[in-house]
């Protein structure tokens, strides 16, 4: 199958923090891939900006080295790389001062889509937005892209939104969450709303529970200072896992438009019931054979920040009444896995009473990483003579196998940046969505801080604390094995 590439309109893209890690690893290599695919118009311009003083030629050298490091040799022919680098420019800008803004204004074209990607600390969002406005660089058709974290709590999220809205309309603001750019996440919406097979079953009558797991095999070494101020709740649950939950639990939107989709996601967050402390398990990894403990990685022996969290929550509406959603994420776990498992209820009447022992039941497994795809677990008759013997089989659709490797090789940032240029906000969070998520998370964080309980210790390479297993066992359920 050949992917259809739809070119975007001419644009000027300014990347603030263009010499930083995210720009080098994801944004600039992603733009090169889109250039190679023919999606970027010939007159597109990419302008790097940072505190470092350098010439445009030096910046092109830096970007060329980043692409050589993060893009496979067979995907970066020299002639195409050279052509891409010619579209790059650089301006030294002081984000909190007046240096460089006039120079930036001079190289931007007046009648072209202007996109400003803020790959910088959230503390600089307001200052950059203000200067883009006061220097008349931002136009009515400009877009501004901001990276997470979108605040540290509800109060700071509201302040951040106010800073941006002073200078940009909500329709111009793109709060990027790379999880929503994954092919499988978008396929989840197609699976639900473009097929008549699943939607009639997508409710409490037929679904026993839902598991959402995002596990990492590495610890927080190298970013311990940041992580110890956020923890798994702020770093993962409040944003990434919340987005996955919304797509699973949302009602069908009236139409596939950005605000219709985001309206339904906000309704899910607002319908979440408060989660009591007894339904939350927090953990920290201890020292292992090949790793330091969490305390060592964050250089804080008194830290009470969680590197693992599991919780049981419910959505208080008719569709999901009494259907638990189990969320789990952590560092230094058994494997690197991200998946959503929708576990269906057993048939209302079992006509094979002696044949169903050990059967796990029907399940729809949506894999986000490492191998994107969808698996439907069903029960069939075991082939061969000897009577009715039942067995389980997985109907597996690996996107790489079914659709071709070219259709699955896009990084999420590639897709999302092109969506910004198109002006499509479907896969980006709206301000009220961010604030609703913090309004749900803040009481839980405050409750465990008041309780003063230390997170449970767990072994690196495990599935987390034993208490997380008990969270499921209490309801007669089991977590799916990490890495299964």
From TrEMBL:
GO biological process: glucose metabolic process; pentose-phosphate shunt, oxidative branch
This protein's pathway: Carbohydrate degradation; pentose phosphate pathway; D-ribulose 5-phosphate from D-glucose 6-phosphate (oxidative stage): step 1/3
Domain Glucose-6-phosphate dehydrogenase NAD-binding, residue spans: 14-187
Classification via InterPro entries: G6P_DH, G6P_DH_AS, G6P_DH_C, G6P_DH_NAD-bd, NAD(P)-bd_dom_sf
Sorted UniProt keywords: Carbohydrate metabolism, Glucose metabolism, NADP, Oxidoreductase
Record Gene3D superfamilies: Dihydrodipicolinate Reductase, domain 2, NAD(P)-binding Rossmann-like Domain
Catalysed transformations (reactions): D-glucose 6-phosphate + NADP(+) = 6-phospho-D-glucono-1,5-lactone + NADPH + H(+)
Annotated positions binding substrate: 178, 182, 216, 235, 331
Domain Glucose-6-phosphate dehydrogenase C-terminal: 189-480
Cellular component per GO, a single term: cytosol
Pfam families for this protein: G6PD_C, G6PD_N
EC number per UniProt: 1.1.1.49
GO molecular function: glucose-6-phosphate dehydrogenase activity; NADP binding
Broad class of enzyme this protein falls into: oxidoreductase
Residues forming the catalytic site: 240
Domain of life: Bacteria
Binding-site positions, NADP(+): 17-24, 51, 148
Record's function text: Catalyzes the oxidation of glucose 6-phosphate to 6-phosphogluconolactone.
PANTHER family: GLUCOSE-6-PHOSPHATE 1-DEHYDROGENASE (PTHR23429:SF0), GLUCOSE-6-PHOSPHATE 1-DEHYDROGENASE G6PD (PTHR23429)
NCBIfam families in UniProt: zwf
Membership in a protein family: Belongs to the glucose-6-phosphate dehydrogenase family.
Name the UniProt record assigns to this protein: Glucose-6-phosphate 1-dehydrogenase
Organism, scientific name: Shimia marina
Gene: zwf_2
